[in-house]
């Protein structure tokens, strides 16, 4: 296996990269359970690769062929890998989501991802199997570019991941989250935030140098505000799209977003400086006692000097850079009037089982019996008919070359980071919070920027709307979903089936892809219900639970019914809703106790080489760097 690349790259290495020929980069990944304790609070099982966690970074150059041989040695869970942000042009079957572009890889099976990368930038890879990546199967994917417009402008590059951390396994949290015991759909709240999957991260820097930081939020749920004391950030890339340089004091990065920025160090080494990641607590329905929403790291100029506590910051939004003001480096202009408009309304509501689900246009996603790609490949001319993909996949069929406009109206009061597979998109419009639907906003073509920002994950504000645009130039099956993993589980997913007849003419599915279906007993031909005779007969498809009976049609009514009726009817109503524990209370009972004035974190440093999970226990057990930035 190619060893994980440390965060630091010298100029010399960058020069070497620029002369490198397109190569094949091969990774052999055995996916296994390991034990880790990244926040120093709690040992727990995590999903590692080749016996290690954090998992290795995938590194390649633009033009390289990347081969990832996955062997699932978990024993008790299926898995898959998605390469977040990669276009997978010509290799849509390598995109990763289970029941979409492949069958999940069952325990004991192997599967090879093989694709060519023709895009530079900062990406990541993660499991795309039911709620799994927050258990640890998430890592950076960096594509170096000999033609980067910023290549001469920095001395070294560093990868900085943000994430949130739960003490409980997703398999323990998910049943309580989607249950009649949680009728409001309150998402489990993480215990801690992490930098590079640890805490008290020390980043050694030299004075008077410029660093390219590649920042990735690999979290399950929390967006984070990030700032560096005493230093400015100059943004040069978001989600793989180079931007005109833009100065920022504070960056907001949702789950799955990336941002690269240049940071020039000070000329003297008289002090060290804190940098802080602070979780956006407006996303959380409750703030449990064991929640520690800040994580601190330090730019270390001098090991002998103290590591200062970060100063208190209270106005987060007021200082935060607005990504809508970014201008792509290539100045790609606004795509013309759309050929096709898709409008999606985001709704959270209860179904007849009493649990809370997430909906696009009254449909909560249910995985089809046949992976959507295999339905596209096995239904002939009917592959252009959205009906064959079933009634619960929110499928929209796109034709080659169409300019597609996607309007998303948030009828929910939470922020949602939406991600589209297979491309980046023009972020044409984002309303303020509480603006209502796009129609309410009264916006016309003339209000759109002439050179819109592009990215692959974009935050929609509470009760607001966004408009995205892209050209359908990449045949494949591309999910559009909220990247909060809880909302993936509760169904906030739509499916774009792009140029399915082209897929039939161009794609050949490798044998090992079909073999994992056989091993997992998943059908690979027919419509979403695995019907091969009458392709328009969906009987037997996977369905969402039935709606609530009349009079119980909204979350509000359910909550009201719960609070009033239970008083009146007592035990009968309680029995109907069940007595499952509150998952928020269940989400963790461990409390942070680490308190010390001196932070000793000799491990977990960038550039110190791969650390084992065990080392992180020691790294974070003496630190208190996560306190004090926000009360
Ligand atoms: Cu980061 Cu559907 O993916």
TrEMBL record:
The answer on whether this UniProt entry bears the keyword Ligase reads no
Q: Which GO cellular component terms, listed alphabetically, does the Swiss-Prot or TrEMBL entry include?
A: high-affinity iron permease complex
> Which InterPro entries does the entry mention?
Cu-oxidase-like_N, Cu-oxidase_2nd, Cu-oxidase_C, Cu-oxidase_fam, Cu_oxidase_CS, Cu_oxidase_Cu_BS, Cupredoxin, CuRO_2_Fet3-like
Q: How does it sit in the membrane?
A: Single-pass type I membrane protein
Instruction: Extract the signal peptide range.
Output: 1-22
Recorded GO molecular functions are: copper ion binding; ferroxidase activity
Task: Return any one Pfam family short name.
Answer: Cu-oxidase
Domain Plastocyanin-like, residue spans: 30-147, 156-302, 365-500
- List residues traversing the bilayer: 558-579
- Write down the Gene3D superfamilies for this protein, in alphabetical order: Cupredoxins - blue copper proteins (2.60.40.420)
Q: Where in the cell does this protein reside?
A: Cell membrane
Swiss-Prot/TrEMBL keywords: Cell membrane, Copper, Glycoprotein, Ion transport, Iron, Iron transport, Membrane, Metal-binding, Oxidoreductase, Repeat, Signal, Transmembrane, Transmembrane helix, Transport
Biological-process GO terms, alphabetical: cellular response to iron ion starvation; reductive iron assimilation
Keyword Glycoprotein on entry: yes
Coiled coil start-end: none
PANTHER family membership: IRON TRANSPORT MULTICOPPER OXIDASE FET3 (PTHR11709:SF361), MULTI-COPPER OXIDASE (PTHR11709)
Stated family = Belongs to the multicopper oxidase family.
Q: What is this protein called?
A: Cupredoxin
Q: Which organism is it from?
A: Pseudomassariella vexata
List the taxonomic lineage: Eukaryota, Fungi, Dikarya, Ascomycota, Pezizomycotina
């Amino acid at each position: 296996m190619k060893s994980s690349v440390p965060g630091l790259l010298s100029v010399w290495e960058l020069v070497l990269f620029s002369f490198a020929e397109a190569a094949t980069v091969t990774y052999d990944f055995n996916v296994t359970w390991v034990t880790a304790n990244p926040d120093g609070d709690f040992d727990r099982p995590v999903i590692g690769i080749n016996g290690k966690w954090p998992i290795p970074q995938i590194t390649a150059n633009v033009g390289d062929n990347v081969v990832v041989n996955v062997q699932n040695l978990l024993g008790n869970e299926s898995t898959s890998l998605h390469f977040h942000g990669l276009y997978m042009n010509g290799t849509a079957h390598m995109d990763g989501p289970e029941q979409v572009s492949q069958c999940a890889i069952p325990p004991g099976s192997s599967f090879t991802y093989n694709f060519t990368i023709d895009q530079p930038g900062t990406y990541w890879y993660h499991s795309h199997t039911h709620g799994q990546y927050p258990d640890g199967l998430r890592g950076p994917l960096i594509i170096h570019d000999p033609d980067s417009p910023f290549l001469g402008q920095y001395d070294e590059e560093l990868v900085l991941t943000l994430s949130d951390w739960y003490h409980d396994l997703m398999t323990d949290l998910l049943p309580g989250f989607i249950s009649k015991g949680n009728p409001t759909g309150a998402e489990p709240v993480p215990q801690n935030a992490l930098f590079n999957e640890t805490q008290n991260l020390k980043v050694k820097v030299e004075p008077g140098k410029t660093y390219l930081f590649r920042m990735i939020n690999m979290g399950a749920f929390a967006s984070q505000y990030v700032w560096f004391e005493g230093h400015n950030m100059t943004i040069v890339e978001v989600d793989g799209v180079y931007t005109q340089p833009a100065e920022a004091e504070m960056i907001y990065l949702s789950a799955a977003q990336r941002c690269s920025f240049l940071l020039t160090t000070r000329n003297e080494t008289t002090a060290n400086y804190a940098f802080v990641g602070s979780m956006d607590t407006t996303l959380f329905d409750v703030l449990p006692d064991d929640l520690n929403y800040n994580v601190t790291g330090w730019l270390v100029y001098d090991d002998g000097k103290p590591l200062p506590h970060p100063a208190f910051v209270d106005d987060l939004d007021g200082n935060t850079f607005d990504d809508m003001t970014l201008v792509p480096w290539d100045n790609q202009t606004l795509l013309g009037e759309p050929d096709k408009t898709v409008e999606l309304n985001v709704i959270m509501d209860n179904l007849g089982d009493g649990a809370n689900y997430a909906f696009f246009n009254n449909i909560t996603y249910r995985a089809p019996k046949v992976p959507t790609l295999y339905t596209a490949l096995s239904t002939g001319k009917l592959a252009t008919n959205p009906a064959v993909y079933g009634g619960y996949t929110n499928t929209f069929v796109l034709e080659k070359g169409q300019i597609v406009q996607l309007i998303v109206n948030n009828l929910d009061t939470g922020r949602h980071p939406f991600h589209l597979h297979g491309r980046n998109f023009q972020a044409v419009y984002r309303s303020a919070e509480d603006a209502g639907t796009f129609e309410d906003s009264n916006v016309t073509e003339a209000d759109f920027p002439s050179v819109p920002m592009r990215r692959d994950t974009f935050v929609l504000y509470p009760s607001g709307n966004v408009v995205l645009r892209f050209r359908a130039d990449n045949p494949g099956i591309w999910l559009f979903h909220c990247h909060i993993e809880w909302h993936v589980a509760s169904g906030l997913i739509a499916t774009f089936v792009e140029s399915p007849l082209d897929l039939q003419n161009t794609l050949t599915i490798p044998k090992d892809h079909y073999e994992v279906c056989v091993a997992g007993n998943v059908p690979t031909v027919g419509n979403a219900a695995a019907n091969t005779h009458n392709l328009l007969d969906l009987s037997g498809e996977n369905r969402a639970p039935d709606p609530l009976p009349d009079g119980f049609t909204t979350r509000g009514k359910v909550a009201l019914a719960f609070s009033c009726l239970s008083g009146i009817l007592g035990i009968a109503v309680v029995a109907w809703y069940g007595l499952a524990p509150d998952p928020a209370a269940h989400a963790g009972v461990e409390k942070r106790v680490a308190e010390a004035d001196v932070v000793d974190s000799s491990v977990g440093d960038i550039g110190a080489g791969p650390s084992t999970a065990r080392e992180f226990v020691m790294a974070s057990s003496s630190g208190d760097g996560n306190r004090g930035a926000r009360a």
